[in-house]
């Protein structure tokens, strides 16, 4: 859903990209607001991902990646990843993007 007050809403009640979720209710999943745009002069977006990083009780760093949107009508599988690769978007011989 597009919102004209997207940033205002996010900053009022949320955590910006790269921030730490603190004081979250125990046992509840966070609600996320996501907006992604490609650079008009760059390649198309392949997917939108959430990267979760945390330290466990032993101080060890962990990371989990969740695909939340995939291009080209691909679906997200049970492992929370796009179900198939998108394919090449680069012409390697010409070092240019396919348009």
Average pLDDT score = 86
Catalogue the unreliable spans. Answer: none
Radius of gyration: 17 Å
Strand content: 15-25%
Number of helices: 1
By secondary-structure content and strand pairing, the structural class works out as mainly beta
How many strands in all? Answer: 4
Sketch the major β-sheet: 2 strands, antiparallel
* Secondary-structure element series: HEEEE
Shape field: extended
| Oligomeric assembly | single chain
Strands ordered across the widest β-sheet = 1-2
- Termini separation (Å)? 27 Å
What does this entry look like structurally?
The chain has 99 residues and is mostly beta strands. It has a domain at 44-83. The chain is 8% helix and 23% strand. The protein contains one helix and four strands. The strands form two sheets. A two-stranded antiparallel sheet has the order 1-2. Strands 3-4 form a two-stranded antiparallel ribbon. The protein is extended. The mean pLDDT is 86.
